[in-house]
Structure formats: C-alpha cells, structure tokens
Amino acid sequence: MxxxxxxxxxxxxxxxxxxxxxxxxAGTEERKSIMWFDSWSDLVRVVIVGAAAYAFLIITLRxxxxxxxxxxxxxxxxVTVALGSTLATILLSADVSWAEGTTxxxxxxxxxxxxxxxxxxxxxxxxAVTSRPVLLVREGALDPAQIRxxxxxxxxxxxxxxxxxxxxLALVGAVVLEPNGTLSVVxxxxxxxxxxxxxxxxx
Length: 203
Description:
The protein has helices at 2-15, 18-36, 40-64, 74-92, 98-121, 123-129, 144-149, 154-163; strands spanning 134-138, 141-142, 172-177, 183-187. The protein contains 8 helices and 4 strands; from the N terminus they run ααααααββααββ. Helix 5 crosses helix 6. It has a 4-stranded antiparallel β-sheet. It starts with a helix and ends in a 16-residue tail after the last strand. It is of the alpha+beta class.
C-alpha cells in the first residue's frame, strides 16, 4: 500500500509541467543561497548602519549618564534589554532605517531619564514604579512568610547564602531581596546596627 502511494506521488511529479518544476528547483536553490549569503549590499549596510547606530548609542548613554545602565530596579533592566534589542533590529532589519532606530534609542533613554527624575522627587511615583527591598533572613532566622510572598523558596535563599561564602545560616546577619531582584547577604560580623536593612515589609 505504501509502495502504491509512492508510485502515485512519482506519477504526479512526472506530470508536472517542466516550467513549474524548474521554478520550484530555482526557489529551493535561492533559499539555500540566502541562508549563507544574500548580497554584498546587505553586508555593507550592516557595517555602515551598524557602526553609526553603535556610535549613536554610545553618545546617548554618555549624555544620559551612568543611571541609564545602573539596573537598580526592574524598569532599568527592561530599558537595558530594550536598548540592546533595538540596536540588533537596526543592524539586521533592512525595514528599519538608521533615523528610525536612533529615534527609538533616544526615546528609551529619555523615558528612563524621566522615570528616574520623577522617582527622585515624588515618593508616591517611586513606589509606583519600583519595589522596596525585603528582609528574608534576620540574624540567622528565615522569614517563611516573606519568602512565600515574594515567590521564592528556602532553597533559593540558601543558595544565595552559599554564594555569599557562608556554610552556616547562623553566621548570616541578613539576606535582603533587592528591588532589582538580586539577593544581598550580610554576615553577622558586618551587620552592625542594621540601619541599612529594610523594615521587612513585602514588596
């Protein structure tokens, strides 16, 4: 039965007009060539537009200051990823002109500056766009409620403790979930008065 199906497929292929067969073969060969090399003009575009866009991004970051790439909270991380994605689009997509791409880069940097500026002046706005640090461990004792509220597990907290160079939780003064999602580990010997620690409210 399978042999019969193959025979019928072969018959249909033989019945195809020669022009159609040649067109399909040409299309296949064209797709194979594009996979490895399209044209010299596209390569030249990538080099010229890519270099210009990269230079513009460096100037934009230099003018916007260190805060743009600080990644102090989730919004900063999103802006950093978006800048990289936009640069990649300018490099590889012929549908996006240099002017359009650089406008998008400048817009992202400007939005980040505006958010940072408003955050430093209005606490209500800052609380709306950024989360607060959360205390997960205090003087060697885990806080299961805070760990669950922030969708973490005790094993993840323990991993952060080990990464901080501690093999015993009793030696840890505090573990803080920072606004950017990282876990900061403070030893008992460096805890001091704990004035830099958050109050322990959920973010």
